Q: What sequence folds into this?
């Protein structure tokens, strides 16, 4: 076995077991990157992808008008590498920063399938021997996973599956490589690891057997969340079936001539139709985005109307509560006025009685005085009569 430093490239389609395979390789004393993308709800155990390299890989694709979700081929990659040596040097710099002096490293990013022509020369600059591991999975299971994670249509996802598998196979030709179906990895992780190590001369077989328990522990069958349902079919089903079968043959012999010939046929046909299919997908995506924008606008308008109605209702409720409060106050004042009226009426009746009594008293007083005056006058008259 060659003891030179090794770079293990995990080259596969998104949602195809690349994370699980990378974790398995790391158990064999192969270094992971220092700064990795954080785990997420759809991949709680982690992605094991070097964050800076992921960003750079996407930037390389964008340099040539592509993105990770585009299905068009990267035309004449060898010419592009010659025209952009600075990208190769940048890849080498990022790898050096991520792994430092580690002798054996594992690099995983699904974009590797597309940008490998820039990555392999960068690893050559480090004097590393490059080994490729290609995990793969049924197209419809991948489509279900991408639909759940990204809202991608199944036709787009299956076309993307074709692109990534075709590019991964083509761009690893000439490298020591081994293929691994996701089901096999989950069902028999130790046996799968032994086969991958043997086919690529990656490490001594003892590296796997000595860590068998650990490998069994970290590769759990419940990592498979989306399984194909019988009867599913769609875009170019014959291509999907034949490419999956060809990869199964390559899992036995990484350079099976019959499998490579069929893959080349599928690639030629798919590349010819990819621009038209890509245009249709972009048009569909644009129309979908337009509908989403319109829906969002209508939703925002409805929300604004709801807020306005809520404010109006709140104002009406406040006015009602204020009117009720004023009515309660008015009723209280009315009760007080009625009480005061009753009190006033009592006082008036009392005053009338007192006035009547006073009037009667006044009326009696003059009669008594007149009698007294008459008596007095009579007395004086008698006295005057006597004197005479």
A:
């Amino acid at each position: 076995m060659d003891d030179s430093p090794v770079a293990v490239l995990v080259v596969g389609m998104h949602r195809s077991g690349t994370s699980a395979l990378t974790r398995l390789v790391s158990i064999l004393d192969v270094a992971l990157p220092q700064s990795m993308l954080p785990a997420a709800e759809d991949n709680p155990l982690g992605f094991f992808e070097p964050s800076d390299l992921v960003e750079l890989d996407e930037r390389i694709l964008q340099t040539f008008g592509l993105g990770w979700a585009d299905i068009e081929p990267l035309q004449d990659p060898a010419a592009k590498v010659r025209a952009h040596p600075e990208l190769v040097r940048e890849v080498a710099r990022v790898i050096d920063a991520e792994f430092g002096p580690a002798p054996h490293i594992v690099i995983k990013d699904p974009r590797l399938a597309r940008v490998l022509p820039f990555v392999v020369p960068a690893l050559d600059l480090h004097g590393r021997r490059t080994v490729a591991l290609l995990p793969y999975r049924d197209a419809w299971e991948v489509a279900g996973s991408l639909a759940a994670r990204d809202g991608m249509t199944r036709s787009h996802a299956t076309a993307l599956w074709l692109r990534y598998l075709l590019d991964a196979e083509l761009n690893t030709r000439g490298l020591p490589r081994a293929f691994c179906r996701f089901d096999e990895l989950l069902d028999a992780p130790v046996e799968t690891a032994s086969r991958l190590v043997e086919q690529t001369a990656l490490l001594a077989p003892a590296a796997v057997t000595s860590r068998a328990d650990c490998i069994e522990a970290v590769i759990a069958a419940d990592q498979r969340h989306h399984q194909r349902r019988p009867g599913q079919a769609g875009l170019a089903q014959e291509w999907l079936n034949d490419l999956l079968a060809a990869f199964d043959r390559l899992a036995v012999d990484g350079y099976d001539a019959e499998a490579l010939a069929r893959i080349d046929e599928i690639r030629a046909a798919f590349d010819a139709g990819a621009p038209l299919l890509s245009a249709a997908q972009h048009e569909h995506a644009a129309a979908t985005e337009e509908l989403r924008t319109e829906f969002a606008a209508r939703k925002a308008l409805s929300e604004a109307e709801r807020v306005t109605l809520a404010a109006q209702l709140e104002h009406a409720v406040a006015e009602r509560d204020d009117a009720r409060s004023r009515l309660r106050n008015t009723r209280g004042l009315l009760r007080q006025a009625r009480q005061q009226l009753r009190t006033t009426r009592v006082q008036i009746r009392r005053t009338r009685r007192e006035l009547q009594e006073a009037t009667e008293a006044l009326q009696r007083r003059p009669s008594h005085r007149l009698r007294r005056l008459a008596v007095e006058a009579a007395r004086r008259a008698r006295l005057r009569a006597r004197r005479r």
Notes: The mean pLDDT is 86.
